Amino acid sequence: MNAERKVNMSDFQASSTVQPLERLNRVIASHIADGLIPGAAMLIARRGQIVHQQALGRQTPDDAAPMRLDSIFRIYSMTKPIVSVAVMMLVEEGRLLLSHPVSRYLPELANLQVGLTLSGLEDQPALGLAPAQREMTVQDLLRHTAGLTYGIFGTSLVKSSYTEAGVGGPDTSNDSLITKLATLPLAYQPGTTWEYSRATDVLGALLERLCGKPLDAVLEERIFRPLGMHDTGFWVPIAQQHRLAEGYAIDPVTQQAVHLLNVRERPRFLSGGGGLVSTPLDYWRFADMLLRGGELDGVRILSRKLVALMTSDHLASLPQAKSGASYLPGPGYGFGLGVAVRTAAGESAIPGSVGDYHWSGLAGTYFWNDPQEQLTAIWMVQAQEQREYYRQLFRNLVYASLID
C-alpha cells in the first residue's frame, strides 16, 4: 500500500453542514477509508461527563474485527504521567523530597560526569569528561533536566554511547538500567537543558527501590486498582489479547517499517517511561482524577496542591532549558512534572488554553486536560509514523466542537 494523505473537497464541503462532533467522526472515518490508519478510538469529556466516545475502523489491519471502545492500545510515553503521579504520592507521604539528589535513593548514580566533544586524533571528535556541577535531583528527573538522554533525538558522542551500551535493550531490567547508566556520561549539566530521556525509567527504578516491589505491583496498588483502571498494565493477559489494537506493519504514508512493543507476555523491562497498555476509558479515569484535583469517585490519589505543582511550568527559571533542537513540547509550552504545560495563548500552532497540559505516546496515542474548559480528550491509535499529524488534527477538531 502506498497511500497519500489527500483532501477530498466534496467531503470537506459536506462536513461544513454537520455538527462538529459528527465532523470529527467523518474526518477520521475518511482517513480510515483511504487506508491511512486501520482504526482509532476517541473519548471526549466535559465537566466530568463523557460527551463523545467513538470507535471507528478495524482493530487490526489483517482482521475484519471492528475497533472497540474497550480495545487495548500500547500507550508508550503516556506511561510517564502515571509514573510521575506515583512518585508524587511518595513525596506526599514524606518518603522523598523533590530537591534531594537522586543518588540518595539510587546511590549508583552518584558522581556522574558530563560528556564533552573534544578534538581527537586527526581532528576526529573524541568524547571527553567533565565533573557535574551538581547532582541531578528528583525534580530534574520529573521535568527532564537531569542530563540524561534517550540517544535517539539528535546526535552526539554521548548519545552514541547510549546506543553502543544497549541502554533499554530487551534484556534490561530496572536494576540493570541503573547499573548501566552509572557507567555512562550525562549529555548535559543537570538542571540546564530539557532533553527527552530515560529519566522516567529511572523514576520507575526509584519507585521499585523505595517500595520494595516490582513497578507493576506499585502502580497496581497505588493507581490502577484505586481508580478502577482494570485494563491498564505492562502486558495483555491471554484472555484479553483479542482486544489488542495493532497498526500497519509498513506505514502507508512514509513506507517505514513499524515495530511495536510485544505486550503479549510479561516483559523483563517494566519501563516507567513507556511500557504500559491501556484503553480510552481507563486513561480517562486517570486524566479525570487529575482534572478534579487528585480525587475520583471518593478516592484521593494526590492532594490538590501537588496536582497543581505537577501541572505548573518548571522551566520558567531555566531560560536555556528550551533552547535545544529536540524540545518536544514546542512553542507556547513549558514542562511540569511529567506533562507539558501551556504557558501562552499564542505561539503554538494548536488551539488550547493557558494551563492545559498533555502528553503522548510513540505509537500515536495522545491525551490532554484543559482546566479552563473542564475538558479531557483522549485519542487512541497505533500509527507511529503519523503521530504528530493526528495529534494536531484531533486537537483542532475537538476544540472546533466547543460552542459554550
Describe this structure in words.
The protein has helices at 9-15, 20-33, 79-92, 138-143, 157-165, 174-181, 199-211, 215-227, 280-291, 304-310, 387-400, and strands at residues 39-46, 49-57, 73-76, 113-119, 125-131, 276-278, 295-296, 299-300, 333-335, 340-342, 357-360, 366-370, 375-380. By secondary structure, it is of the alpha+beta class. It folds into 2 domains: 37-85 and 212-400, DD-peptidase/beta-lactamase superfamily (Beta-lactamase, 3-Layer(aba) Sandwich); 94-210, no CATH class. A hairpin with a 2-residue loop joins β1 and β2 (49-57). The protein is globular, with a radius of gyration of 21 Å. It starts with 8 loop residues before the first helix and ends with a helix.
For this entry, give a set of tags.
404 residues; alpha+beta; Beta-lactamase; 2 domains; seven-stranded antiparallel β-sheet; two-stranded antiparallel ribbon; 16% strand; globular
* Secondary-structure arrangement, i.e. CATH architecture of the largest domain: 3-Layer(aba) Sandwich
- Rg over CA atoms: 21 Å
Helix fraction by DSSP (H/I, runs of at least 4): 25-40%
Report the CATH C-level class of the largest domain.
Answer: Alpha Beta
Mean pLDDT across the residues is 91
Poorly predicted runs are: 7-15
Instruction: Please give the count of helices.
Output: 11
What is the number of beta strands? 13
* Overall spatial form: globular
Briefly characterize the structure.
Helices cover 29% and strands 16% of the residues. The chain has 404 residues and is an alpha+beta fold. The chain folds into two domains: 37-85 and 212-400, Beta-lactamase, CATH 3.40.710; 94-210, no CATH class.
